[in-house]
């Protein structure tokens, strides 16, 4: 019971920080302004980890690796904790365990990215109906635009209703099945 509670807390903390780090990464990659409520929250939450890493780990083709790498490493650490709890340390050889943990961390990071996309698409859909001029509408729209624009070429609006977020969510769910 205590192990389950500790695992739950570890999963919650690593998941929350992973989401924040990935949101920071994608906001920067999509050129979303950090001068809003979401951006300020994400920067203040993750600065303690990202700023020191930026001195060591420079960006690569405009991508903020100092935000992406800790998100990935958090998932590797969590996968390691799960493996040690379920399998034990003596069951797997280190030459098998390390690639397995790195692979699981990569898959988990991709899964978190898809969950983040689905969440942003849902927030955008709700805001477009409830409060289209909300201060959060612009950053969420900028975040989802690179995904929705190619879909909108093939799926035109029907009666002034844009179905591209629905198609994007279905495609993201389909990808989650394979991850």
TrEMBL record:
Task: Report the transmembrane regions from the record.
Answer: 6-27, 61-85, 154-178
Keyword tags: Membrane, Transmembrane, Transmembrane helix
Q: Does the keyword Membrane apply?
A: yes
User: What are the annotated GO cellular component locations?
Assistant: membrane
| InterPro entries in alphabetical order | CCB3/YggT (IPR003425)
Decide whether keyword Plastid is in the record: no
Q: Which domain of life is it from?
A: Bacteria
Kindly provide the name given to this protein in its UniProt entry.
YGGT family protein
- Species the sequence originates in: Candidatus Accumulibacter vicinus
Lineage summary: Bacteria, Pseudomonadati, Pseudomonadota, Betaproteobacteria, Candidatus Accumulibacter
